[in-house]
């Protein structure tokens, strides 16, 4: 069993591998076979396969995406991560959307639960997608109605 400090380092390595090194294959080894995603993207299964597919989508739709970790807080087998994700919407912000080719910045808060083997067992996460969609011009203007 890892210490909270070791779990923080695993979390840092995971975020950097996926969002800064753009290595979605890293998730195949880092996620447990019985991994559960508690906030899956619409249309994606809440398991390991669906989560890796979701990560591949993010990396393809924003090939320049980067993550800046601001805080890592660990207790027991869980790590809370506060980060900012920045990128260019080159492939459509969500599946089925046309690309805007505009830059965005999005805040995120995640909680990851680690297994004794150092693999991710569960993920809960919230990102400020509305703010990013506003930056990309994907939302109607405030007060606009009709």
Description:
It contains four helices and five strands; from the N terminus they run H-H-E-H-E-E-E-E-H. The protein has 146 residues and is α+β, with helices and mostly antiparallel strands. The chain has a single domain (4-92, 102-135), classed as Nuclear Transport Factor 2, Chain: A, CATH 3.10.450.50. The chain has a five-stranded mixed β-sheet with strand order 1-5-4-3-2. The longest helix is centred in the first third of the chain and has 17 residues, at 4-20. The model has no long low-confidence stretch (mean pLDDT 95).
Name the features.
globular; alpha+beta; 30% helix; 146 residues; 33% strand; 5 strands; Nuclear Transport Factor 2, Chain: A; single chain
Task: Spell out the blueprint of helices and strands.
Blueprint: H1 4-20, H2 25-30, E1 31-37, H3 48-61, E2 66-75, E3 78-88, E4 103-114, E5 120-127, H4 129-135
Parallel strand pairs: 1-5
Antiparallel strand pairs: 2-3, 3-4, 4-5
Major sheet description = 5 strands, mixed
Number of domains: 1
Report the end-to-end length measured between terminal Cα atoms.
58 Å
CATH class descriptor name: Alpha Beta
- What is the averaged pLDDT score? 95
Strand line-up across the major sheet: 1-5-4-3-2
CATH topology: Nuclear Transport Factor 2, Chain: A
Q: From N to C, what is the helix and strand string? A: HHEHEEEEH
- Helical residue percent band: 25-40%
Counting DSSP E segments of at least 2 residues, the number of strands comes to 5
- The portion of residues forming beta strands comes to 25-35%
In the CATH hierarchy, what is the architecture at level 2? Answer: Roll
Overall geometry comes to globular
Low-confidence stretches: none
Count of individual helical segments: 4
Rg calculated over all Cα atoms? 16 Å
Judged by helices, strands and strand pairing, the structural class is alpha+beta
């Amino acid at each position: 069993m890892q210490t909270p400090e070791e779990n923080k380092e695993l979390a840092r390595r995971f975020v950097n591998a996926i969002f800064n090194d753009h290595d979605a294959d890293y998730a195949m080894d880092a996620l447990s076979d019985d991994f559960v995603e508690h906030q899956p993207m619409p249309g994606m299964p809440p398991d390991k396969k669906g989560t890796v597919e979701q990560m591949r989508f993010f990396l393809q739709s924003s090939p320049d995406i980067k993550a800046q970790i601001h805080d890592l807080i660990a207790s027991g087998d869980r790590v809370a991560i506060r980060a900012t994700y920045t990128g260019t919407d080159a492939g459509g912000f969500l599946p089925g959307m046309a690309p805007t080719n505009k830059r965005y910045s999005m805040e995120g808060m995640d909680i990851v639960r680690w297994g004794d083997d150092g693999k991710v067992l569960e993920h809960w996460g919230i990102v400020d997608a509305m703010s990013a969609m506003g930056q990309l011009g994907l939302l109607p203007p405030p007060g606009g109605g009709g």
